[in-house]
């Protein structure tokens, strides 16, 4: 309605990779008039289906999904663009009288929805090229050490192997002379219009999650993951430094196909990287205020989540 001041409302189902978010979301969709909005930085890319555990075409035909297959892997997709796309999608779903259910574990995107984004300078190709040259000479851990001296807070939350985030933090520091963490803390970005009820699935048994991660990776390989990455490499316009190809699983398969690793090493690295991602996701979710948590593997979880979401709908009515 024109002039409406009540914020749009949505439920977000998040948690570490391989904890069962997708299946639980589909169970909720069987009982509620909802549409799913992906909060996943890899599912946005077309042609990256197996390694992202993307819902099948049949599933997406039965339950509407949004923000999947919206960009080419040669493109970059930012948190700022996600925020604009997600808020517009939430508005459209709510206007149809349906519930927007956000599902995924890309925490930068979730943080943008919950807090807004700090206004930061745009990318500078010359600075990025210089940082890439420095990294080629000294290695990304050396740049991470430089970041630790300039911005200890940012360095503490960025892995020494996370090239994209190290580069961006150093780029911002070079352009502004101020630490990225300081700009993010001091910024007063306008909050998004969506009021989120955030539900996190956190496994009480981490060993079970680790086993699921390993089994899921092997299932992806059986389903054709190596061939999928081979097809992406064959295009000729993609390279290992692009955000799409740095996604967990794709990065290691790319290196395997480039003969940097044998199969055993590539498989072990892919599984280890996925477990590390899950650990980072769980650490952040446990530290974040205002999130309702459930044990991802507890009996009767679908019924508990359905009851919780229904109670939210009643509260909003």
Describe the structure.
The chain is of the alpha/beta class and 317 residues long. Helix content is 54%, strand content 10%. It has 14 helices and 6 strands. A 6-stranded parallel β-sheet has the order 3-2-4-1-5-6, with helices on both faces. Helix 11 (225-234) crosses helix 12 (250-257). It starts with 7 loop residues before the first strand and ends with a helix. Mean pLDDT is 91; it is low at 1-6.
The succession of helices and strands, N to C, reads: EHEHEHEHHHHHHEHHHHEH
State the strand order across the main sheet: 3-2-4-1-5-6
What value does the average pLDDT take? 91
- Cα-atom radius of gyration: 20 Å
The major β-sheet equals: 6 strands, parallel
Q: What form results from the Cα inertia axes?
A: globular
Total strands: 6
Uncertain regions: pLDDT < 50 for 5+ in a row?
1-6
Structural class: alpha/beta
First and last CA, distance: 16 Å
Strand content: 5-15%
The helix content, as a percent range, equals 40-55%
Number of helices: 14
Give the gist of this structure.
54% of the residues lie in helices and 10% in strands. The chain is built from 14 helices and 6 strands.
Question: Which labels suit this protein?
Answer:
alpha/beta, 6 strands, about 325 residues, single chain, about 55% helix, six-stranded parallel β-sheet, disordered N terminus
């Amino acid at each position: 309605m024109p002039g409406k001041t009540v914020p749009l409302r949505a439920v977000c189902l998040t948690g570490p990779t391989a904890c069962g978010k997708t299946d639980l979301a589909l169970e909720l969709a069987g009982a509620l008039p909802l549409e799913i909005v992906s909060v996943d930085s890899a599912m946005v890319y077309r042609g990256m289906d197996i390694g992202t555990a993307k819902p099948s075409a049949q599933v997406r035909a039965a339950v509407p999904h949004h923000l999947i297959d919206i960009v080419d892997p040669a493109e970059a997709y930012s948190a700022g663009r996600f925020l604009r796309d997600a808020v517009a999608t939430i508005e459209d779903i709510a206007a149809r009288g349906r519930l927007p259910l956000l599902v995924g574990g890309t925490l930068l995107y979730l943080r943008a929805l919950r807090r807004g984004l700090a206004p930061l300078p745009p990318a500078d190709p010359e600075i990025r090229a210089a940082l890439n040259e420095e990294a080629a000479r000294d290695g990304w851990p050396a740049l991470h050490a430089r970041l630790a001296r300039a911005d200890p807070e940012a360095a503490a939350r960025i892995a020494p192997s996370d090239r994209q985030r190290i580069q961006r933090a150093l780029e911002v520091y070079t352009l502004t002379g101020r630490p990225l963490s300081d700009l993010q803390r001091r910024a007063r970005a306008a909050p998004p219009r969506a009021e989120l009820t955030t539900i996190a699935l956190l496994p009480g048994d981490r060993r079970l999650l680790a086993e699921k991660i390993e089994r899921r990776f092997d299932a992806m390989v059986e389903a054709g993951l190596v061939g999928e990455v081979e097809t992406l490499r064959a295009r000729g316009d993609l390279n290992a430094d692009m955000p799409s190809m740095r996604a967990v699983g794709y990065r290691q398969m790319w290196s395997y196909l480039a003969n940097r690793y044998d199969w055993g090493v590539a498989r072990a690295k892919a599984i280890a990287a996925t477990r590390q991602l899950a650990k980072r996701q769980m650490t952040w979710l446990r530290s974040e205020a205002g999130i309702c948590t459930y044990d991802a593997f507890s009996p009767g979880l679908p019924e508990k989540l359905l009851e919780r979401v229904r109670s939210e709908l009643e509260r909003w009515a």
